[in-house]
Amino acid sequence: MLLKKAGCLLMFWSCLLLLVVPAQAQNDPHHPGHIIEGLVVGVSEGDRLTVNSYGTEIPVRLYGIAAPQTAKIDKFTGWYKQGQPYAEDAFRALSLKVLHQVVRIEIRDTLVFKTEPTQVAVAVVYLDGRNINLEMLNDGWAWAYRKLLSRIDHPHYMGIERMARAKRNGLWAQDDPQPPWEFKPRLKIKAK
């Protein structure tokens, strides 16, 4: 039953991808992508949230930014991965901005993970006309994530990161914060 449900979910996401990002839009950096409105029903990290749009929950990774990684606990095995400094602050900042709010997401890309049957929408999140991705960057809760930035967006996002660094906002209060793509958490067994 579970396998059948996972297969249906995978089929749904595949169809959504075909509808959301037409072939010509995938290769055109000037095309804004598909826009979906929905209620933010969850925030899992400083750069990840879940949007419910007409009954469908869509996992979203914020385009162009990377927040510090939060600590993870596997409830089944008891393994614990430590998080990065300011990860909880970034999570709290994003939660305060968007949780239980109706947002507009502009999907730029989708990611598929080998370990999960679902796709993740990479999107710019707007709330009342505000670009939440850029706010998180400007407030110092994330790095500009060069790997996911288009050539057009790269200078703008990098400029905002430089301003946040200069003001020592958020995680930039640290002397040399380690970006999440370089962070290697140590595994520990959590005592019960």
UniProtKB/TrEMBL annotation:
TNase-like domain span: 34-174
InterPro entries given in the database record: Staphylococal_nuclease_OB-fold
Matches recorded under SMART domains: SNc
Record keyword Signal present: yes
Keyword annotations: Signal
Region forming the signal peptide: 1-25
UniProt superkingdom: Bacteria
PANTHER family: EBNA2 BINDING PROTEIN P100, SERINE_THREONINE-PROTEIN KINASE 31
Protein name (Swiss-Prot/TrEMBL): Thermonuclease family protein
